[in-house]
């Protein structure tokens, strides 16, 4: 069961929100300044363009920094946190709407359902799991929402090289390069989201040879 809390008394009208942008962000408080600065810049742009920020709702790391800055710049903010983490007093006060889920799986599902687009900041295992799952679901035609990697400081360069090997060796079709976008900075990310057009769906399955025939 998902519990919903409003952390402010004023009402937010539908006109306030043009797009709900889910940002998968690190919980680490030990990051280099370049990563914090770019996350804050993205949050500022989300606020200045009257978008809604959706993230993990925690009061640590880039999640907290983004919620604080986005709210400061007028964005509506939504935090989605598992009950276990809420129990450790990890809830950010800058999430205007707070959803408490029973576990991580429900948290990710609610993030996907509520959001219109996804952005992955540089991050660890959790961030990678979250963004790769939405790519996989898009590949399988469960959604056609925009997906962006924020490649701050070339953080995802090695991951993109691994993707290219998957394409080269037929583990994934080259057309799936269009499932996601590599943004070097926040302005590029926002511009891509503003102009996003879903790619034409591609049949995932390679033809399987039968009786030696191709």
TrEMBL record:
One cellular component (GO) term of this entry: cytosol
Entry keyword annotation includes Hydrolase: yes
Keyword flag Hydrolase: yes
Keywords: Cytokinin biosynthesis, Hydrolase
GO biological process, one term: cytokinin biosynthetic process
Reactions it catalyzes: AMP + H2O = D-ribose 5-phosphate + adenine
GO molecular function annotation: AMP nucleosidase activity
EC number: 3.2.2.n1
Top-level taxon of the source organism: Bacteria
Pfam annotation, one family: Lysine_decarbox
Similarity-based family: Belongs to the LOG family.
Protein's name in the database: Cytokinin riboside 5'-monophosphate phosphoribohydrolase
Organism: Mangrovibacterium diazotrophicum
Native organism taxonomy: Bacteria, Pseudomonadati, Bacteroidota, Bacteroidia, Marinilabiliales
């Amino acid at each position: 069961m998902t519990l919903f809390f409003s952390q402010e008394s004023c009402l937010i009208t539908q006109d306030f929100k043009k797009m709900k942008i889910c940002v998968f962000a690190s919980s680490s408080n030990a990051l280099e300044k370049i990563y914090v600065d770019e996350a804050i810049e993205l949050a500022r742009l989300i606020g200045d363009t009257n978008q809604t920020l959706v993230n993990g709702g925690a009061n640590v790391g880039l999640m907290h920094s983004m919620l604080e800055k986005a709210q400061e710049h007028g964005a509506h903010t939504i935090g989605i946190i598992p009950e276990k983490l809420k129990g450790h007093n990890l809830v950010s006060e800058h999430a205007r709407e707070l959803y408490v889920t029973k576990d991580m799986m429900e948290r990710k599902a609610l993030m996907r359902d509520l959001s219109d687009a996804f952005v992955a900041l540089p991050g660890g295992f959790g961030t990678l799991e979250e963004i790769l799952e939405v790519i996989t679901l898009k590949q399988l035609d469960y959604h056609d929402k925009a997906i962006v990697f924020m490649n701050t400081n070339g953080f995802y360069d090695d991951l993109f090289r691994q993707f290219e090997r998957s394409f080269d060796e037929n583990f994934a079709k080259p057309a799936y390069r269009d499932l996601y976008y590599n943004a070097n900075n926040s302005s590029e990310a926002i511009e891509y989201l503003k102009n996003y057009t879903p790619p034409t769906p591609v049949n995932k399955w390679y033809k399987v040879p039968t009786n030696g025939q191709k």
